[in-house]
Design a protein that fits this description.
The chain is an all-alpha fold. The chain has helices at about 25-50, 55-60, 75-80, 85-115, 120-130, 140-150, 155-160, 165-175, 180-190, 195-205, 210-225, 225-230, 240-250, 255-290.
Length: about 290
Amino acid sequence: MKIAQRKPSASTWTSISGKKAPTTANIMRTVLLTVISLIIIAPVVWFVLSSFKDLTELSARPPQILPKVWATSNYTQAFKTYNYMRYFMNSVIVTSVATALTLLINSMAAYAFAKYNFRGRDGFFVLTLAMIMIPLQVILIPIYLVVSSMGLVNTYWGMIIPAAATPTGVFIIRQYMLSIPDELIESARIDGAGEFRIFARIVLPLARPALAVVAIFSILWRWNDFIWPLLIAQDEKLYTLPVALALLNGQLFVPENIVLAMSVMSIIPVLFMFVFMQRQIIQGIAQTGLK
C-alpha cells in the first residue's frame, strides 16, 4: 500500500541539501546587515575612487562616481613631491617598536595581577583600570615635561615610550591569564623552572589570543596617533603619516588629489591586517570576554 506524500506548498522554501529553510527573521536580518554594510562601505569606495581623480574632477559639480581619466599620477607625485616613504617608515618604526614594547609591559603586568598574591593587588588593579577614564589631553602637559626633561623630544623614543603601557591591554591580557590553571605553573616551579622561564615558555604561548587582540589594538592606536607625534616630532624627518597629512592640509595650496592618494596608501596596512587577521581578532575577543 502506497502512502501519499504531502507536497510542499508553493509558499514554503525547499532545499535540495536538506537544510532547514531560512526563516523570515533570518532573511530580514541578512537584508538589514547587507544594507548597513553598503552604507558603511560606500564612503570608503568613494574615497578610493576620488584618489584617482585630478583637481578638475574633484571640484566638478555635480560630482561623478567614477573618474573619467584614471589619474594614477596622483600616487607617483606623492613620492616625487613629498617624502612619502620617509613618513611611511617613521610610522612603521614607531608602530612596530611601540607595539612590541606594549605587549612586553602589558603582559608582565597582567601576569603579576593574575597569578601573584601580594598586598594591595586588587587596589592597584582597580587603579590601573581607572586610568582608562583619564583622557590624554588632561595629562598631556605633564607627560611632555617629563619627556622633555629626559631629552627625548624630537626622537623616536619620545613618541614610543610614553604610550607603551596601556590599561586596556593589561585588562584584556589579565582576564585571559586568569583561565590558565595555577597547577600548571606550580608544577613548572616544582620541576625547577624559574619565574621568567615560566612566563616566557608557558604563560605567553597560552595567552597568544589575548596578545593578538592587544597587538591589533596597539597597531591601530599607534598608526593613527596624531596629537602626541605632533608635539614630539619637531623635525620633518620624524613626521609620521597622520602628522604629515595634517600639515599638508595647512598649506596655502592644498593638492587634494595627492592628499587623497597618500591617505589611501596610509590605510592599506591596516586594511590588510583586518583581512588576514580577522579570525584572530574574533577568536581573541570572544575568548577573552568569556574569562
